[in-house]
């Protein structure tokens, strides 16, 4: 595991040691009830706000796929910033129940982000992925899938933990998409992520060709 501060939270430590989508579903189903309090209030989790604010600057409306939606933190942040229709996918059905209960999602669906998504090409104006492209979760291969389901002229906005950006192949995956002409890299800058633990992320913004 990369050197990432997990504090004293056992769920967060387990989350960086997951063995696949089924393992993720078990963990996040267990964590769903206290997740928001644990990660937002106790750890200063600002990733959803950072990503939503950037997408709102680029496109204040549209149909968005929230990949790795969890309890719906990104959907809530988007609803506060623009006029969006948001669908969510995640490995955890209990987390998705929480997301749907926010009232910020059109629909949610259980899905494995490590394989091809059951979504048509160019179905969305944008894809957000916050907190999921990380240690023990979803690898860099998912970026190409996010691009596939985003229309030409749309955006992929994702957070990737800074300590794994290069070592775990995310930077290389982005470079490959750029070289293949599928996207233009707008930015991959460092941003706050969990402010009470001094953990940062790369906010990756891809413009889909």
Automatic annotation (TrEMBL):
Keywords: Methyltransferase, Transferase. It comes from the Bacteria. GO terms for biological process: methylation. The keyword Transferase applies. This is Methyltransferase family protein. Residues 64-154 form the Methyltransferase domain. GO terms for molecular function: methyltransferase activity. The keyword Heme does not apply.
